[in-house]
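Section 4.2 – Deliverable D4.2 (structural model, holo form)

The reporting period included a commitment to supply a predicted holo structure for the target in complex with zinc ion. Inputs used:
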Amino acid sequence: MIENEKNKGSIQMQRQRISKRQKVNKNKSVSINPLVLGVDLGGSKILSAVVNVKGEILSRDRSTTPAAKGPEAVIQAMLESAKRVLNQAGITTAELEAICIGAPGLSNPKTGVVFTSPHLPRWTDVPLRNIIEKKMDVKTLLLNDTNAAALGELYFGAAKGARNFICVTLGTGIGGGIVIDGEIYAGSLGTAGEIGHMTIDTNGPKCNCGNTGCWETLASGTALAREAKQRISDGAKTSILEYADGDVNKVNAETVHKAAQQGDTLAKELIAQLAYYIGVGLANLIHIFNPELIVIGGGLSNIGDMLLEPAYKLAGERVNKTAFASVRFARAELGRNSGVIGAAAYAFREIGKLK
Ligand SMILES: [Zn+2]
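Output (structure tokens):
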């Protein structure tokens, strides 16, 4: 499946700027409005976008990640996606200042190597940055996808102007991006920010990472669906199944949310339990980092106030009052484009076009 989106007016304006730039100034390092290619490599989809220095998307391409076929097939799919998105924008690789890839799992932004990723089978120590750079002949950068999302929010979204904040992505798992003093905190190898795997309950459910009771086993969309299925199988009285075609296997975070909106007691109870665990994890983050802001994104956050308000309240009950009073909570603003826009922001920063 391939979806293409473009904003014709914006592209036209950009083209005019580009042609003006080429006539006036052949030195790219001082060009008026440089362009980069941001890539959000996910376990299920590849999103590529040509982005300008204002964080505006000129063209976007979404395709399925052939994850099961291994690294070579995925890299080939990334190259094809890049070709399509450049065609859409009407530009060539020569007009790109840089490419930046946001990759899932553990990677090192300094060496450009993806160590391993739970969503990409057979990816072990893949030098992704160098491979793409060689094939595309454009300066290429790599960073973790959730760190990219945090940078996107910092430059163009909910965290503008913040110096110390944490971006929490609540989805099928939980991702994190930690920004300290305006910089991504990547740790010694570049694998920091794996907040979804902090232990909340040593006796809790088994996690994909091999541990038990990680935050994401208790406070993610997967956790909500698992608990709902369990309670339904145990015979609980609920309308959740009505939203899942009567099939317990189709129960997910969305069906629980729909039932809760209609006042279903079990659904409301499950969301309250989820909020509790989200709050516990947020309290831990506030204790450790004393952030000025926590940005909450990801599909699960679309449940909204019903989930987030009690989570914030619970966090407040578990944290020093002064530290808690200084924290602001905000919803992420960039949605599904946070990865590509954030990767672009990183590229612009690395080439000195963003401060
Ligand atoms: Zn884990």
